[in-house]
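Troubleshooting log. The previous structure file for this entry was overwritten by mistake, so regenerating from the original sequence record. Sequence copied from the archived sheet and checked twice against the printout by T.R.
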Amino acid sequence: MKNIYKFLILTLVASGTMFYSCETIELEKLANPIALTEADPDLLLNRIQNDFNGSMAEFNFEGSTTGRILVMGTRNYFARYGSGTVSTSWNNLYADMLPDIKAIELAHSADNDLSYHLGMAKAMQATVMMNLVDYLGDIVFSEANNPGEFPSPSLDDDAAVYTAARALLDEAAAYMSGASAGTATDLYYDGDADKWIKFINTMKMRADLTTGNYSGVINATNVISSTADDLEYKFGTQLIGPNTRHPDYNSDYTSSGTSGYESNWLMSLMVGQYGDANDFYGEPQSDPRRRFYFYRQNWVTPNNYALYSAGGDPIIYDGAENGETLQCSIQTVPTHLEFTPDEPTWCSIQLGYWGRSHGNDEGTPPDGFLKTASGVYPSAGSFDGAPDVFEYTGTFPNYDEQFVALGAGGVGAGVEPIMLASFADFYRAEAYLATSDAVNAAVYLEAAITKSIAKVQSFGALDGAANSTEMASAMDPARIATFIAETMAAFDAAPMTSALDGFGWPVEKDKMDILGEQLAVAQYGAGNDMFNFIRRTGHPRTLHRSLEGSPGLFPRSVLYPASEVSANPSVDQKTDLSTQVFWDQGVTNPAN
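Regenerated output below.
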């Protein structure tokens, strides 16, 4: 999910055809692309599942760009989060999911038990509805898909829609209780009703967190607690007829190199100052997930530093400017970022990691085989086995064999994470912290990090050509234990709150800053929860500031899809991004 790619899966699993859309192009499903001559419940359910994944992929992408997990490639918030922001999800819900679910309901009877179909479908419907409210506020619901009586359906109050979605989750759980999949193809849980019920309960937990019902989060039961219960969409390795690979793999592992850009903020946060040499310099352990997330193609980024060795201790090497491949390397630091923590990383970061920062809207130079690509998690690309400290042998190193290539790594057999066990632990950690229970917050934060690392590392097996020595080092239990222990020590030592300096940065990270940073790391490949977290808590305050000194108002909600506004006189378009969703208390993050 690079900053120029998001995707929409429109077709049935039987055909598997996938369509992708560019960030700057608005694709809206103006007509149903699948004209089913018969309302076959199995085929309808297949389409609902694919529409659900397309919607969640869009929410993940947009949450990632607001949360600096991915790059926002536009300098102005209003220009970026316009009428195309959640148009895929809107159209998926109203054009496909709702009528398809109605058709399944009509086909359901004592002689034709479709309880499993309806349990799945209503759980997915409720999830998309809640997320649309999170992004838009008021949406169409009670008058939707009834053109005879309501040709111009009105918007419902967003809190009422949340309540209706919660009731749908209860209904979905009732359908799932004791249900058998029968003839249904379950793309997520392979016919396991108990796992669907856990997902439903976890969505209730998420809704409780969003609306401030912290006791509901803390006391939630039978939720996703093991990676075996993670809800995710699985991709394949087929290139043509159809292409079933992860969209990030499709964009990054090509004959012309990598297309998008990884987030400088996230990479720098995970790498630390010196990567594997952090111990030598007395710095905290680097994040063990970074080699699984990011695949470097270069050993030094222009105007930043790398490390090499001539048989002894690490030596710092300063990379030269290169305006052809990295234009900002020959530019001066934006005035509003001078003397701030962003000054060293606003353009490039250390150790050959090559991405972009929040708000960078420059064109694409010839850097396809230089910039960092997505790794083996979650897109099933390649594991990064390049050393952080290169041995100098008369010439400086290059990555003669570490370039992206078609068919490399895990060949795209990755996943779209939707709800993971680590996310549920983060929900509890935040709820405990919000109620000033730092002890239990620490327990669940540690559990969340531990589960996230274990899941990410399991993807290493997808890359059979990976550097086995570096893979073993990245998965070393002692290094992982040290990283977790250091992170938790920093959390325990951090204050509950801390002040801001004259530039708007925290004088020291508080507990919610650290929790928010770790949530962002665990959300890589997903990202949906970050948009809510930022608006809900105003953290983490360490996020990269925009390269634009005045990027406009950070979105409290986004614009309605243009197609709906133009076709429905009952929907007035917003004039700005200031409209708060019902649960939003207006907490601001100084990074925005």
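The CA atoms of residues 7 and 20 lie 4 Å apart. Archived copy saved in two places this time.
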